[in-house]
Fold:
Amino acid sequence: MSRTTLDLWVGFFVVIGMAALLFLSFRVGNLAGTNFTDTYVVKAQFDNIGGLKVRAPVKSAGVVVGRVDSISFDTQSYRAEVVFTIGRGFEFPRDTIASILTSGLLGEQYVGLDPGGDIEMLESGDSLQITQSAVVLEKLIGQFMFDRAATPAE
Amino acid sequence: MSGPLVVVRRLGAMVTDGIWRLGFAARFFGLMLLYSGQSFTRLHLTIREIYFGGVLSLLIIVVSGLFVGMVLGLQGYETLQRFGSGDALGVLVALSLTRELGPVVAGLLFASRAGSAVTAEIGLMKATEQLRAMDMMAVNPIARVVAPRFWGGVISMPLLAAIFTAMGVFGGWLIGVVFIGVDEGAFWSQMQNAVDFRYDVMNGVIKSVVFGVAVSLIAVFEGYDCTPTAEGVSRAITRTVVSSALAILALDFVLTSFMFRGTS
Structure:
C-alpha cells in the first residue's frame, strides 16, 4: 500500500485535532495544575459550611494545598462533616485550625488551614478538632441589628 | 368517502411508515456494525472518508469557531462589566464553548457540510444502481460503501469539535485580551480555576462522540433508504440536515440533563 497525499492531509487533521484536545486539557482545563496525585485524607466538622462545595480548594497562607473531597451531614452531632484531601508534600501539625473563608467579597468559598504548634503531624484519616464556621451574612446583619437595639440611643 | 376519513388514513399511513423506517434503521445499524470490520482492516477506505468529511470541513469549523468565540468575547464582556466582573470573561467563554457550543455548533456544521454530502453520494450510487452492481459482484455495499463513511464521520466529529472549541477560546482571547484589554493573567487563571478536565472538557468530548454517531448514522441511512430518483435524493439530503439538527439538539438536552445537574 503506497502513501498518498490524502494520508498526509488526514494525518495533519488528526494532529491538529489532538493538539486542540491537549490545549483544552492543559491550558483551558488545567489538568496538570493543582490535581494532587499523592494525597492524604483529613476530616473536620463545622457548625455551618455556608456555600462550600465539593472540589473547592483547601488553602494555607493563600497557597492551594488540597481539595474538598466530600461534604456530608453527621446525624450524631448535627454538624457538617467535610472530608478533604491534602497533597502528600504538605504536612500540618495536629492542632491545625480549619476555617471556611470567602475569596473576595462575593467569591467562592474555600477551606483555610492555620497551622498550630503541635510537634506531631496530621496523618491520613485524622480529624481536625478546632474549626471555624463560615460567616453567614444574614446572621451577621441580624447580630448587628440586635446590638444596635440593645445599646440605648445617645 | 372523503373528508375526515382521508385525513385519518393519511395520518395512520404516516405513523406506520415512520415505525417501518425506524425498524429498518435499527436493522441497518446492526448490519453496519456487523460488517464494519472491513473499515478497519482496509483502513484506506476510512481514511478517504475522514479526508472528505473531516479535513475538508476544517476551514468552515476553524472560521466559525473563531467568530463564535469573538462574539462570545464581545457579548460576554458587555454583560459582565455591568457587574464589575469583566475579568471572568475567560470563564464564560471557556465554559460555554467546552460544555455546549463547541459540540453542538460543530455538530450542526458537520451535519450540513459532511452529512449532506454523504447522503448525496450514497443516494446517487443507489439511483445509478451502483450499489446493486456491487451486490452482483459479491461485494457487500454496506461493508464497502456505508460502514467506512459512518466510521469516518464518527472519528472526525470529536476532532472537529475540539478544534472548534480551541479556536473559540482563541477568538475570545483575541477580543477580550488583545482588543478590549482584559488582564491576560486573570483571563487564563480564572478560566483554569473554573474549568474542570473531567467535568467540563471530557463531557464535551463525550457529547461530540455521541453527535458524531447520530449524524453519521442519519446521513448514511437516509442515503441508503432514499427513493432512487433525482427528487428522492434531494429529499433525502433535506431530511438528513433537518433530522440531524433535531437529533443533535434533542440529544444535547438529554446529555446535559445527565451530565450537568447543578452539583459541584
Chain B has a mean pLDDT of 90. Chain B touches chain A through 33 residues (CB under 8 Å).
